Please model this.
Amino acid sequence: MAVERIVIENCAIATVDGGDTEYASGHIVVAGNRIESVGAGRAPDDLENVVRRIDGTGHLATPGLVNTHHHFYQWITRGLATDHNLFNWLVALYPTWARIDEKMAYSAAQGSLAMMARGGVTTAMDHHYVYPRGSGDLSGAIIRAARETGVRFTLARGSMDRGKSDGGLPPDFAVETLDGALAATEATIDEHHDASFDAMTQIAVAPCSPFSVSTELLRQGAELARRKGVRLHTHGSETVEEEQFCKELFGMGPTDYFESTGWLGEDVWMAHCVHMNDSDIAAFARTRTGVAHCPSSNARLAAGIARVPDMLAAGVPVGLGVDGTASNESGELHTELRNALLINRLGAHREAALNARQALRLGTYGGAQVLGRASQVGSLEPGKLADLVLWKLDTLAHASIADPVTALVFGAAAPVTLSLVNGRPVVEDGRLLHVDEDAIARSTREEAQRLAGIAGRE
Model:
């Protein structure tokens, strides 16, 4: 059977390839689920089996955005504890989060995924680590929501085994046992992980953070991940308080502690990494450990400004993350392109910190690197998977900005005219094609109210 082709032409193109190749007016040919060609001018007229030809006049085509850190369940606890730092915010919200069930997790995942997908995310990621006893199949519910939305997805199967009675932050009834967490994580890998080139679902091993997991869970989690051939994810160096916690409990800072438990390496990525000194950055660069930079969440929780320019200069892989929507209520990744650029310019490097193209690279190829999928997604190149976005830039919001990449990053959030994942349309004219946004809005509102009611009765 002849492969079907989709042709997009007459648009500006930012490929985000190794040479940052761009076309003021060019074309992209998609054959099946792969990019067949990218180039200047119109596509050839004699292509066979073209099922759709799209006029991209007034648009910029980029790789689809790649989200590298999120907590979907937080969608139903947005707008709470708005004036707290991280530790106080966690203490305030853990008792509520510990009451989630399968229906809540599914609905919250739908909301989180819908918001990201309609804003240009084609590869999503969720770090889910709250598994209350008797709550149902939370991992399965989250994966089902991603499959229905149509995005490529990594579930970082999280875990916590250090409850309040052991010096951790979460309530005791919200944590798992060491053996239970490891067994459940391995079962999730066995059931859901797909190692193929065009995989739509992958699993990572992801104990939550130094202040909610035991040293043994970190160590054995790393061994499990490497035995199974999957990636590792956790939170690291997010706040000054975390650094103090690690020094008091383990006698060393977070980076040294992670290295002592096997948690540095090219198969590892960590969220935040705000409080990193020169030796920490050098260790990440030496081991090719990745970073998920979450600028809005770090600002919301007053965590600080990550040293992203220094990380990039040292060769650390860096991508962008939304983080949970209880600390980034918008839930959108395309706004993080702008926020990463602006917030990093408040740091030591000032106006030289990041430019528009570096920000776009963080949100696309950088994210693909961090998730271990840079050979498959993250840039528009022949042979790669057809995950791409067509941004509309000819409206009032961007009409007077001549450079399309500058318009996308510095300007207002651009509408998505088309988003393809694996060569399949997921968004058209700003609307999701495979799920009902209005029904999701109703469901997430109802589940948020139900959770608040349950938590209020405890």
